[in-house]
C-alpha cells in the first residue's frame, strides 16, 4: 500500500509538471526570441518543482523524473522494483498532462516537446546530447547534495526548483531543456514529427547525466 501511494504521488507530480511547465511553453512561447515567454517557461518548470517538493516530497521524494530515479537507484536509495514503479508512474502522469494540454490548446499544439532548436546555429545531435548530459548532471547533483543532509529539509524544495529554473535559462535556446525523459517522451509521442524522431536524445542524455551525478557525488562524499 505504501508503494502504491508513492506511485500515485509520482503520477500527480509529473502530471502537474507537464501540465504547467509544458503548458506554459505552449501558452507563451519558449524559444529564445520570445523574451518574457522564455523566462516564464523556465520559471514555470522551477516553480512546479517547488510546489511539488513541499506537497508530495514527504510521500515519494518528488522524483517526477526518471533521471532522478536512476540516480537514487544507483545510490541504493531506491529498489529496482520501486525504480520501475516510479518510471511507469512518471510516464502515466506525463501522458495525462499531455491529454489535458490537448484538450485545452488543441492536439496540434506541439505539447512543449523537446527538439534541437532551429535558432541554435551550432546545434547537432552530439551537441544536444552533451547539453542534456551537462544540464541533467548539474540538476541531479544539486538534488543529491541538498537532500543528503537532514538540516537542508526546509530549503531543499526551493534549491531544487531554482536549479531547474537555472538549467532551463541556458537550455531552452539549445534543446528546449529536457533533463527529464518522462517530460520529453510523452509530449514527443503526442506531437510526432521531428520531436518524436529526436526524443531518444532526451531520454539517453538525461539518464546518463543523472547516473553520472550519482556516481560523482558518491565518490565525493566518501571520506
3D architecture notes:
With 223 residues, the chain is mainly alpha-helical. Helices cover 73% and strands 0% of the residues. It is built from ten helices and no strands. α6 crosses α10. 51% of the residues are buried.
Which H/E pattern describes the elements? HHHHHHHHHH
Secondary structure: helix percent: over 70%
Average pLDDT number:
95
Radius of gyration: 16 Å
* Terminal-residue CA separation: 37 Å
Number of helices: 10
- Largest sheet report: none
Structural class: mainly alpha
- Low confidence ranges: none
Query: What percent strand?
Result: under 5%
- According to DSSP, the number of beta strands is 0
Tell me the overall shape.
globular
Describe the SSE topology.
Elements: H1 2-28, H2 36-53, H3 57-60, H4 66-74, H5 80-105, H6 125-147, H7 153-171, H8 181-191, H9 193-198, H10 201-220
Keyword list:
223 residues, mainly alpha, 10 helices, 73% helix, globular
Amino acid at each position: 500500500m505504501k508503494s502504491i501511494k508513492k506511485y500515485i504521488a509520482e503520477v500527480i507530480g509529473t502530471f502537474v509538471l507537464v501540465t504547467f511547465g509544458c503548458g506554459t511553453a505552449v501558452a507563451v512561447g519558449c524559444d529564445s526570441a520570445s523574451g518574457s515567454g522564455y523566462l516564464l517557461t523556465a520559471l514555470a518548470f522551477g516553480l512546479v518543482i517547488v510546489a511539488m517538493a513541499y506537497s508530495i516530497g514527504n510521500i515519494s521524494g518528488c522524483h517526477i523524473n526518471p533521471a532522478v530515479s536512476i540516480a537514487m537507484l544507483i545510490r541504493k536509495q531506491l529498489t529496482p522494483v520501486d525504480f520501475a514503479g516510479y518510471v511507469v508512474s512518471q510516464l502515466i502522469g506525463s501522458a495525462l498532462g499531455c491529454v489535458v494540454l490537448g484538450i485545452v490548446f488543441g492536439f496540434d499544439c506541439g505539447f512543449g516537446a523537446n527538439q534541437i532548436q532551429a535558432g541554435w546555429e551550432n546545434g547537432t545531435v552530439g551537441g544536444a546530447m552533451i547539453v542534456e548530459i551537462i544540464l541533467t548532471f548539474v540538476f541531479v547533483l544539486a538534488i543529491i547534495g541538498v537532500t543528503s543532509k537532514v538540516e537542508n529539509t526546509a530549503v531543499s524544495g526551493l534549491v531544487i526548483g531554482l536549479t531547474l529554473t537555472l538549467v532551463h535559462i541556458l537550455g531552452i535556446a539549445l534543446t528546449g531543456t529536457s533533463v527529464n525523459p518522462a517530460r520529453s517522451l510523452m509530449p514527443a509521442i503526442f506531437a510526432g514529427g521531428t520531436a518524436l524522431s529526436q526524443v531518444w536524445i532526451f531520454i539517453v542524455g538525461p539518464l546518463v547525466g543523472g547516473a553520472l551525478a550519482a556516481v560523482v557525488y558518491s565518490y565525493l562524499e566518501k571520506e
